[in-house]
Amino acid sequence: MSRVEQSTKLDLERIIFIGRTFEEYLDMFSLSVEELKGKKIMDCPAGACSFTAVGNKSGLDVTACDIAYYHSGEDLKNKGLQDIEHAMEHMRKAKSNYIWDYFKDIDTLRNNRLSALKDCAKDMRESSDRYVPVTLPSLPFKDGEFDILLSAHFLFMYADRLDYQFHIKTLNELLRVTKKEIRIFPLVDLEGKRYEHLDKLISYLADNNEYTVEEVKVPYEFQANANSMLKIRKG
Predict the structure, then answer these.
(1) Which of 32, 85, 113, 185 has its CA 20 to 30 A from that of 47?
(2) The dihedral formed by the CA atoms of 171, 172, 173 and 174, expressed in degrees to the nearest 10
(3) CA pair distance 15, 228, nearest whole angstrom
(4) CB 167 within 8 A of CB 155
(5) How far, in Å, are 214, 216, 218, 233 from residue 27 at the CA level?
(6) Sign of the C-alpha dihedral computed for residues 114, 115, 119 and 122 taken in this order
(7) Which pLDDT score, from 0 to 100, does residue 160 have?
(8) Which domains does the chain have, with CATH numbers?
């Protein structure tokens, strides 16, 4: 997924363009296709994930948002191929930080990441209107435009670069454009430690009577300790 500072949105070198597959999304967010049918869905930030591509082919209504989409699809595909190889080298050095049940080895992981990138790049060419460039914490959508919003591997993971106020502003914006529910995965930082301000953030949300907030275990764990999501319901 794209990982950049807000002032450098057009600097392709600052973007890491890697994504997860549709099947991973269902497991990360403990969802089924049946649950999502008939809903308007946003994936933000979506990076090189295939959730939008495969989801729409499966009869879902998914929109992808990411700062990376200010760049051309071809540039992003090439960057993604490089980033996958860099990531695999890192994995070899840090294998002990991951649990090798979901992916049996690095080759399986590489094939999974390449599959997601291929599906995403193809869909960006064929249905570019589904891929909306955004710079968080601002989104170009109406209030309550989406029924459900999924946000993976961004908030909380980058606690060393994105401060608490950025998290609050972004969360408020995600809530603004969502009618029913937000799911955020995972709840740990890059070192696998629970986001240090998570309890404070949950209290902030719980103080607003509009929201019901819970931490939910999910059937997915690749990074050690990254096996739960935050579910925020409105109303």
Answers:
(1) 32
(2) 50
(3) 26
(4) yes
(5) 17, 12, 7, 19
(6) positive
(7) 79
(8) 6-234 (3.40.50.150)
**Phi/psi at 102 (5° precision):** -65, -40
Terminal CA-CA length for the chain: 30
Q: Are strands 228-234 and 178-185 parallel, antiparallel or unpaired?
A: antiparallel
Amino acid identity at 116:
A
- Could you tell me if 159 and 196 are in contact, meaning their C-beta atoms sit under 8 angstroms apart? yes
In whole angstroms, what is the distance from residue 20 CA to residue 181 CA? 21
Q: What is the C-alpha separation between 167 and 132, in angstroms, rounded?
A: 21
Record the tokens describing residue 2, joined without a space.
């794209």
Instruction: Give the side-chain half-sphere CA count within 13 A for 99.
Output: 12
Q: Which pTM value belongs to this model?
A: 0.93
pLDDT in tens, 118-175: 999 999 999 999 999 999 999 999 999 999 999 999 999 887 788 999 999 999 999 9
